[in-house]
Design brief:
Layout (H helix, E strand, L loop, with lengths): L1 H30 L2 H15 L4 E7 L6 H14 L4 E3 L9 H12 L7 E3 L8 H7 L5 E5 L4 E6 L8 H10 L6 E6 L17 H10 L4 E4 L5 E6 L2 E6 L17 E9 L2 E9 L6
Length: 279
């Protein structure tokens, strides 16, 4: 009788341990995001990259055109960048199905480098974005490469105190090259619409005071560039979404931007893709 009870107790313990381990594995799988997977890969690549010369790719606004977006991802993979930064608007509304589809497209391109995504205004569900894609504000940092890239969420056309505080904390000038990115560009004489104003003054002051190297924006479906307070700033919103043919400064074209860092000096070039009417 005693042996039977011990056997039952042992069996129950085995079942409980198995259930507990399964729960941990399931929870781990659920909490893994594109960002967390990309960050692990980035850290490994940054540790072995040539510190004298490396690059990353910037693009934005692919929603509604998987074919063109995939073409750009394949080209980005060929360029062998340290990482890809996506400026946002990866979906129409940011539903779970749409975000899952975006991840499927990304995974279909084999050998893709780490991909980090800035939240766009079309990713309407912040909690879902955080669960499936990554944090709303984040930092890509490498002391070895002298890089700190700070990405912020201004998807509601506002740069709030929380985002400005995050930016101020991370722009500590401990890296040679500090880059700032967000989806919506600041309102300027050149970018008077489809841009944000609340928090703009504080943003530009921080970027100037902390010696930011470059500003990266998306949202407007074209390529454009400007110098703001002495800082090169670009808009790259041509990763597949319907192009903005009229009413904006810049070139309406499908494209990606290759940012090159050679011996600490930053430059960029634009790679144009064939432009056709969306299906």
């Amino acid at each position: 009788m005693l042996l039977r009870r011990l056997y039952v107790i042992r069996l129950l313990i085995i079942i409980l341990v198995t259930l507990f381990a399964t729960a941990i594995l399931c929870n781990s799988a659920e909490t893994a995001t594109l960002f967390s997977e990309s960050m692990k890969s980035f850290e490994a690549r940054a540790a072995s990259a040539d510190a004298e010369g490396w690059r990353f790719v910037f693009m934005g606004d692919n929603r509604g055109n998987d074919r063109k977006f995939k073409e750009m991802l394949q080209r980005a993979q060929e360029l062998d960048p340290l990482f890809i930064l996506h400026g946002g608007d990866i979906a129409e509304t940011g539903s779970a199905d749409e975000l899952s589809h975006f991840l499927d497209v990304v995974k279909s391109v084999k050998g893709l480098p780490p991909l980090f995504v800035v939240r766009g205004n079309h990713e309407m569900n912040a909690a879902l974005f955080e669960k499936m894609i990554g944090p709303l504000n984040f930092v890509i940092d490498s002391q070895r490469l002298g890089l700190r890239l700070v990405a912020l969420d201004n998807s509601n056309y506002v740069l709030s105190e929380r985002e400005l505080s995050f930016l101020s904390k991370n722009l500590d000038q401990k890296r040679q090259n500090q880059i700032v990115s967000m989806h919506i560009p600041p309102t300027t004489d050149r970018w008077p619409k489809h841009s944000f104003d609340k928090g703009k003054k504080e943003l530009l002051s921080l970027m100037s005071d902390r010696n930011v190297t470059m500003g990266l924006f998306a949202h407007i479906h074209l390529f454009d560039k400007d110098i703001i307070k002495g800082i090169p700033c670009i808009i790259s919103g041509g990763a597949g979404a319907q192009l903005a043919w009229f009413g904006y400064a810049g070139d309406a074209m499908y494209h990606l931007v290759v940012v090159e860092v050679v011996k600490g000096k930053v430059s960029y070039r634009v790679e144009r893709f064939d432009t056709e009417l969306m299906p």
